[in-house]
Amino acid sequence: MGNENILIVDDTLIEVTAFEEELSQEGYQVDTAISGEKAVEMAKQKKYGIVFIDMVMPGMDGIDTCKAIKEISPDTIPIFFTGKVDADTSEKERNFIHEGGEVYYLYKPLDEGMILQAVRKALSGMSNTAAKELIHELNVQKTELKRQTNEINELNELLEQRVAGRTAKLLRTNRELRKAQVQIEASRQEYTDLYDFAPVGYITLDKDGRVLKANLTIGKMLHHWRSMLLNRLFHYQIDRDYQDVFYIHLRKLFEGEEPLTCEVRLCRRNDTKFYAVLDSILVKDPGGNNVCRTSITDITKRKQAEEQLKESRQKYTDLYDFAPTGLLALDDKGVILEANRTVVKMLSIKQPHLLIKSLLYNYVDMAYQDIFYLHLREIFEGKETAVCELVFRNKLHARLDSVIGQHSGSNNICRTSITDITGIEG
Fold first, then answer.
1. Cut 0.90: pTM above it
2. Which of 43, 65, 202, 216 could form an S-S bond across to 196 if both were Cys, CB 3.0 to 4.6 Å?
3. Nearest to residue 78, comparing CAs of 97, 94, 59?
4. What is the pLDDT of residue 1?
5. For 220-233, what is the mean pLDDT?
């Protein structure tokens, strides 16, 4: 190992002290001088293997100090440290190089690793040229490290900007998603309310008629809890007389996929019954399976109204058919459009089905046909009412009272009542 005596020349006391502590901890003999003049005096008293020299100092600068020490101790290795990071040299430095002086640089700020590596190589027998190359290499590495550090800092800054932009975008997207989620939840709740509290019952059935889904309304209609309807066959809620109707309805729906309607009678839990219309369509469930969605409308009141209308029509038919007078509807040619049973009886008609669409003239005595013709013409020419007496071929002496009216079509008709006046003296 070479001379382990090291001299540090720097006018900055703080840097000298830090420099001295780092090298002393590694076991080197370190002396310090705060000026070039002091360093030259110390070189005369002691031989140093390495001299670290600050390039810029008041009084004797770094180059003059180096020249003076090299005259005293030619083998001493000088290492300059300077704050010039671009490695440019002054005119005096260039002249010193041209005069044959050996110059090595370390650039401030110095780090412990750089200093110790330079010292160990120099003291291990390294030539001045190798030391110069090492110092140059270390400086190049430091410059490259600084360049890479700057690039990394720029990339980090760019990455931070991108992360900030992406974060802001994600926050906006998240806010939009939360807003959409609130809207979806509100829509779902609205749909649930509309579904559950609809005025008609809703059920979803599989191909076997099993209830997969039901709203609250159908539960109320059947006097059942909704949970008691789910996963049960809907056939159990249908009156026995209508189960075949429902079975055919469901089978045709799954076979044909066209919307279908049927009427059934449903059984409540309290054994009462009501009529309902089932309107069904075939749809796909989330799993891709066909299911039947059915709306159930209570038509009990409509059925009751239909029964009442039917009864009223029957009463009207009875009153019409069995009235004490004959009732007719004629067109302007005297063709019979309507006739009650009393007319059939009064005219002694043996084949009642032949009466409709026949001419009333055919049943009037020939001597009275002109009277009937004039009577009919008066009605269709605008007279509100007309009355005449005539005799039919079966010797029925009758009075005809006629008014203008309308048939099921838009044409006017003559409505006529026939009163038997046989035996009544005129």
1. no
2. 216
3. 97
4. 47
5. 90
Q: What is the DSSP string of 247-261?
A: HHHHHHHHHH-S-EE
Token digits of residue 257: 């996929």
In this structure, are residues 214 and 229 in contact, taking their beta carbons and an 8 Å threshold? yes
3-state SS class at 15: helix
Q: Which two tokens stand for residue 169?
A: 């975008």
| The amino acid at 243 | Q
Other residues' Cβ atoms within 10 Å of the Cβ of residue 327: 18
Cα→Cα distances 313→96, 306, 308, 340, 367, Å: 136, 10, 9, 14, 39
Q: 45-70 as b/e, with b when 16 or more CB fall inside 10 Å?
A: eeebbbbbbbbebeebbbbbbbbbbb
Q: Which distant-in-sequence residues (6+ apart) come within 8 Å of 265 by Cβ? A: 238, 239, 241, 242, 273, 274, 275, 276
Angle between helices 36-45 and 62-72 (to 10 degrees): 10
Q: What is the dihedral of CA 217, 219, 225, 230, to 10 degrees?
A: -110
pLDDT at 357: 92
Query: Contact, 236 vs 247, CB < 8 A?
Result: no
Q: Which residue has the tokens 């070039």?
A: 36
Q: Classify the phi-psi angles of 268: left when phi > 0, otherwise alpha if psi is within -120 to 50, otherwise beta.
A: beta
Nearest to 39 by CA among 16, 66, 75: 66
CA–CA distance, 137 with 269 (Å, rounded to integer)? 99
What's the average model confidence in pLDDT over 247-271? 91
Q: Which of 254, 226, 222, 225 is nearest to 236 (CA)?
A: 222
* Token pair for 423: 């035996």
Residue 87: Cβ within 10 Å count? 12
List residues bridging with 340 in a β-sheet: none
Cβ proximity of 37 and 60 under 8 Å: yes
How many CB atoms are located within 10 Å of the residue 162 CB?
Answer: 10
pLDDT at site 87? 47
Query: What was the pLDDT predicted at 95?
Result: 63
Q: pLDDT, tens digit, for every residue of 326-383? A: 999 999 999 999 999 999 999 998 888 888 999 999 999 999 999 999 999 999 998 8
Report the SS3 class of residue 341: helix
Helix (H, G, I), strand (E, B) or coil at 328: strand
Segment (H or E) for 151? helix 128-196
